[in-house]
Design brief:
The structure holds 2 protein chains of 2 kinds.
Chain A: E1 4-7, E2 10-14, E3 19-25, E4 31-37, E5 44-49, E6 55-58, E7 61-65, E8 71-76, E9 85-92, E10 99-101, E11 105-110
Parallel strand pairs in A: 2-11
Antiparallel strand pairs in A: 1-3, 3-8, 4-5, 4-9, 6-7, 7-8, 9-10, 9-11
Chain B: E1 5-7, E2 10-13, E3 19-24, E4 31-37, E5 44-50, E6 53-57, E7 65-68, E8 75-79, E9 88-95, E10 102-103, E11 107-111
Parallel strand pairs in B: 2-11
Antiparallel strand pairs in B: 1-3, 3-8, 4-5, 4-9, 5-6, 7-8, 9-10, 9-11
The chains are: A mainly beta, B mainly beta.
């Protein structure tokens, strides 16, 4: 079955530093979504990428979808304490609707 | 608050007991999903409904698990004869179509 891996598992950064998490799927995806989960909270939708090579930006966040539609990345510029949480990618295969979540990257910020 | 509600928020039960969780999706959403999340892991898909039809079930969903969405609105997830390995957060999400999923706050189950 489909597997989605993320690296790194944990990332500790000084406030103001940049952060990147990488997501790799074992299969080609129809689309990929990114979610953020704060400690003790539930996943919150950030963005969906559909097209090969797509790049989308949300303020300090930049999302990319690979040309082969098997990998993706999330980059945060100049991290802030509000960025703390676990970032999950989640892929959707062609022909079905279930999300397969990645293993997540937990971001902590050192003030 | 996404508009998806789950009840109860916490459930502690003894091994062997049955438990039932409820999810109320955003009212105009015809798709409803159940996931299970254990500590340090991403949510794992369990099952989903389009209106009242259950369209897919994960192999994770053993015969002790059953889900219903009788009128295409709220859904229930029942676990029979609970085991300690069932301890997890059970998340419900709804969607108007096959894209953005809005998650509820989850029900945290502890099986003693």
């Amino acid at each position: 079955g489909q597997q989605v891996m993320q690296i790194p598992q944990y990332q500790h950064v000084q406030e103001g530093e940049d952060f990147t998490t990488y997501c790799n799927s074992s299969t080609t995806l129809s689309n990929i979504q990114w979610y953020k989960q704060r400690p003790g909270g539930h996943p919150v939708f950030l963005i969906q990428l559909v097209k090969s090579g797509e790049v989308k930006k949300q303020k300090r966040l930049t999302f990319q979808f690979g040309e082969a539609k098997k990998n993706s990345s999330l980059h945060i510029t100049a991290t802030q304490t509000t960025d703390v949480g676990t970032y999950f990618c989640a892929g959707i295969d062609f022909g079905n609707e279930k999300l397969t979540f990645g293993t997540g990257t937990r971001l902590t910020i050192i003030p | 608050d996404t508009g998806v509600s789950q009840d109860p928020r916490h459930k502690i039960t003894k091994r062997g007991q049955n438990v039932t969780f409820r999810c109320d999706p955003i009212s105009e959403h015809n798709r409803l999903y159940w996931y299970r999340q254990t500590l340090g892991q991403g949510p794992e898909f369990l099952t989903y409904f389009q209106n009242e039809a259950q369209l897919e079930k994960s192999r994770l969903l053993s015969d002790r698990f059953s889900a219903e969405r009788p009128k295409g609105s709220f859904s229930t997830l029942e676990i029979q004869r609970t085991e300690q390995g069932d301890s997890a957060m059970y998340l419900c999400a709804s969607s108007p179509q096959a894209d953005t999923q809005y998650f509820g706050p989850g029900t945290r189950l502890t099986v003693l």
